[in-house]
Specification:
With 334 residues, this protein is of the alpha/beta class. It contains nine helices and 16 strands. The protein folds into two domains: 141 residues, Quinone Oxidoreductase, Chain A, domain 1; 139 residues, Rossmann fold, CATH 3.40.50.720. Strands 3, 5, 6, 7, 8, 15 and 16 form a seven-stranded mixed β-sheet that branches. Strands 11-10-9-12-13-14 form a six-stranded parallel β-sheet. A three-stranded antiparallel β-sheet has the order 2-1-4, with no helix packed on it. Strand 9, helix 3 and strand 10 form a beta-alpha-beta unit. Helix 2 crosses helix 3. The chain is globular, with a radius of gyration of 20 Å.
């Protein structure tokens, strides 16, 4: 029986912990397709789940890792065959179904994205769920009327995975991007991605948020939630679009209806887990070429699978910038 390495999360006496284990394919959660993993990533959600800090896992034990890229090893689904190059992320993957922190995964065929022709497995995981979410947010905002000529676009959580990719894609599309960050020392990094301005989070008075303030932003990609999102809503231009993609600061939102009924502001929820497959494939296809974030790609960190547990705490403490790729298989970049 073939055994392989996996990083699995357990709960015992209400204490959540994760460790490396050996598994067989038969021990993985059910699915039609077995995929050999080449690369995975670390997302903020992964960091919150490994020790239960964010109550992310809905089933124990579960192999962690909410995304992966690799090649099909075996398939009972006629849509896929051995050797197909694929990406798996979203749905219950790595949350209530064994995820990408394993040398093999087994998933339903309906969860599988075909990797675009011009995208390697490594390329796919320099983006991962974070990069996909950034692209989904921008696509949703443009669908709802955002254009470069409408005015500046703010990106919060700017040095993180979603923020970094969002800044580069928006800059590539011709937007005037303002990066909002608490890390003044990362200004050079953010300008290198394409940000035209840097706004320090500590310069914003969040203790005195007015229902409506000076109309400043045509668009916002917000990773934080909480009071900063409330302030951003109060400073939107007429018809502005706000994409809510995260809750790194707080899941709470204390605001009024005034930005919505007096300025027509649109607050858009970005749900990458349940994005329809047709749209999901279209977003990955766009990320492969037209929206490929080369600058983020060139600054990615690559770690070995065995070093994975030592990197989570830095994400929780907000000490990481950009993307981290986890080398699961022995392959280089095919």
């Amino acid at each position: 029986m073939h055994r392989f390495k996996a990083y699995r999360t357990f709960e015992q006496d209400k204490v959540v912990s994760s460790r490396f284990v050996e598994m067989t394919e038969e021990e993985l959660d059910p699915g039609d397709v077995i995929v050999k993993t080449k690369y995975s990533t670390i997302n903020y959600k992964d960091a919150l789940s490994y020790n239960g800090a964010g109550r992310i896992m809905r089933k124990f034990p579960t192999v962690g890792g909410i995304d992966m890229a690799g090649t099909v090893e075996a398939s009972a689904d006629p849509r896929f065959k051995r050797g197909d190059k694929v990406i798996v992320h979203a749905y219950d993957f790595g949350v209530a179904h064994d995820g990408g922190y394993a040398e093999y995964v087994r998933v339903p065929g309906d969860w599988i994205v075909r990797r675009p022709e011009h995208m390697t497995a490594f390329d796919a995981m320099t983006l991962g769920t974070a990069g996909f979410t950034a692209a989904q947010a921008i696509m949703l905002m443009e669908y709802n009327g955002l254009k470069p000529e409408n005015g500046p676009v703010a990106v919060t959580g700017a040095t993180g995975g979603v923020g970094s990719v969002a800044i580069e894609i928006l800059a590539k599309l011709g937007y005037h991007v303002v990066a909002i960050t608490g890390k003044e020392e990362e200004s050079g990094y953010l300008r290198g991605l394409g940000a035209k301005e840097i706004r320090l989070r500590q310069s914003i008075d969040l203790a005195n948020i007015r229902p409506l303030d000076k109309a400043t932003w045509a668009g916002v990609v917000d990773n934080l939630g909480g009071d900063l999102l409330a302030w951003l809503l109060s400073t939107m231009k007429i018809g502005g679009t706000v994409a809510s993609v995260g809750l790194a600061a707080s899941p709470k939102l204390n605001t009024t209806v005034m930005p919505f009924i007096l300025r027509g502001v649109q607050l858009l929820g970005v749900d990458s887990a349940n994005c329809p497959m047709e749209l999901r494939q279209a977003i990955w296809n766009k990320l492969a070429v037209a929206w490929r974030p080369d600058r983020v790609h060139d600054q990615v960190r690559t770690i070995d699978f065995e070093d994975l547990p030592t990197h989570f705490d830095a994400y929780i403490k907000g000490l990481v910038r950009g993307r981290t790729v986890v080398r699961i298989g022995a392959d280089t970049h095919p």
